[in-house]
């Protein structure tokens, strides 16, 4: 009963933190699709740039593949919480802008429920939307007609999950995760048209389009891992994941508001698309090579089949406005990641010998089109440390710190350079150990 109460308290705390979280991005690219997609990585994964499909750790939570939960140490309860801060630089046609923000990332926990069965739960980001920028120009130099377009957006999706990993036979594990996906996606475009004469600027007309969607649905993922022993100290682990396609049963809305300042006449029209959002089939594959407990090297590949999904779009053809699903909005998303970790001696009495050093790199293709062309490609590199927390009561917890550089760019698009600092703390307590008093 004691552990049951503690588990419920931790889950409630995680859900509360997730519900209060703000958007984790300032990028204008988050205005497309579902926004900036999360990688579901925790602190130790982030140092290796999200590698995790084939990773199995008894002292860390790896939500990337639920099959890994079966590796959780039977004597411990693991609680991991993380946050990030970032500085971004946007560059378009020689014009540069900077932005910075911080965000809660995740809160996850895991424990061994039965022999060869591990359980994990927590809150993870799925996507984030956050941007605010303007563009200006002239429509007709002779009549001094100018425009100011303002683009704003906020929100994102989070997922509270419960996962189980089971090792039915030696070296083979399977797992499944059920997640509750929720959040709001809000975007707005305000077009202001003005007539300027000398120092006087008179607003003629304002056209505002507000897009909104509320999501409250589920998401499922299945995974498997198989470990091959190559000798006394060498082993290779293969991993795979699958998340099935399904409709989110959401009804996106678009409200168009037009205001004529000179006449004071305004009008508004609201459009909606029933069942307008869906998740695609998502696949993942990975391989990890380990040399004892010192060196780990892994590679991941993921495919998200967004190209088979539709997305609602507002359009005007022959002076008739429409808000309907378009099959030409998304494209399949591919991600390649490579990462590694080195620790001189995990059980050394020397503090420096127990520090884990991590490196990683990744390349990701876009999952949407921008004005009929490919969206931005993403290149990222990362480096991190796993620093043991050692005191009188605990020598198993870890402070995970990593720095990540991400560059998004595309032909004819702005360049987004972001440096992100990730901090996570893994509390690893021997709650289930049996103590003997002499």
Sheet of most strands? 14 strands, antiparallel, barrel
Task: Determine the mean pLDDT.
Answer: 88
Would you report the number of β strands?
Answer: 23
Helix content: under 10%
Number of helices: 2
Tell me the fraction of residues in β-strands, as a range.
over 45%
Spatial gap, N to C terminus: 27 Å
Shape: elongated
Give helix and strand order, one letter per element, not per position: HEHEEEEEEEEEEEEEEEEEEEEEE
Strand order of the largest sheet: 2-3-4-5-6-7-8-13-14-17-18-21-22-23
Q: Indicate the structural class.
A: mainly beta
Rounded to the nearest angstrom, the radius of gyration is 25 Å
Low-confidence stretches: 15-21
């Amino acid at each position: 009963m004691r552990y049951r109460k503690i588990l419920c308290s931790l889950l409630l705390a995680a859900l509360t933190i997730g519900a209060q979280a703000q958007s984790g991005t300032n990028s204008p690219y988050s205005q497309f699709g579902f926004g900036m997609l999360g990688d579901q990585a925790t602190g130790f994964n982030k140092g290796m740039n999200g590698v995790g499909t084939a990773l199995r750790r008894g002292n860390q939570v790896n939500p990337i593949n639920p099959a890994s939960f079966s590796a959780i140490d039977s004597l411990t309860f693991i609680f991991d919480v993380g946050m990030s801060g970032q500085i971004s630089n946007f560059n378009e046609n020689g014009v540069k802008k900077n932005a910075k923000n911080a965000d809660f990332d995740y809160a996850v926990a895991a424990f061994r429920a039965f022999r060869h069965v591990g359980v994990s739960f927590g809150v993870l980001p799925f996507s984030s939307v956050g941007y605010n920028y303007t563009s200006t120009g002239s429509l007709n130099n002779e009549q001094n007609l100018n425009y100011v377009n303002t683009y704003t957006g906020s929100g994102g999706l989070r997922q509270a999950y419960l996962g189980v990993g089971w090792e039915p036979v030696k070296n083979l594990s399977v797992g499944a995760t059920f997640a509750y996906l929720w959040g709001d996606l809000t975007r707005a475009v305000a077009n202001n048209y003005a007539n300027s004469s000398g120092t006087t600027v008179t607003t003629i007309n304002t056209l505002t389009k507000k897009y909104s969607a509320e999501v409250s649905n589920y998401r499922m993922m299945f995974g498997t891992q198989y470990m091959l022993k190559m000798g006394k100290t060498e082993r290779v682990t293969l991993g795979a994941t699958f998340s099935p396609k399904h409709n989110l049963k959401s009804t996106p809305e678009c409200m168009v508001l037009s205001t004529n300042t000179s006449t004071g006449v305004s009008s508004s029209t609201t459009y909606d698309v029933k069942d307008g959002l869906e998740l695609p089939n998502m696949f993942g594959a990975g391989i990890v090579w380990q040399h004892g407990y010192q060196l780990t090297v892994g590679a991941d590949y993921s495919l998200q089949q967004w190209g088979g999904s539709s997305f609602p779009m507002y359009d005007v053809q022959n002076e008739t406005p429409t808000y309907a699903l378009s099959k030409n909005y998304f494209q399949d998303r591919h991600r390649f990641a490579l990462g590694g970790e080195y620790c001189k001696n995990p059980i050394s009495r020397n503090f420096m010998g127990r520090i884990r050093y991590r490196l990683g790199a990744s390349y990701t293709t876009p999952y949407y089109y921008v004005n009929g062309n490919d969206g931005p490609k993403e290149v990222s590199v990362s480096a991190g440390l796993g620093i043991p927390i050692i005191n009188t009561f605990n020598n198993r917890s870890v402070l995970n710190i990593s720095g990540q550089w991400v560059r998004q760019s595309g032909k004819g698009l702005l360049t987004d350079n972001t440096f992100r600092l990730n901090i996570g703390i893994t509390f690893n307590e021997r709650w289930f150990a049996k103590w003997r008093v002499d």
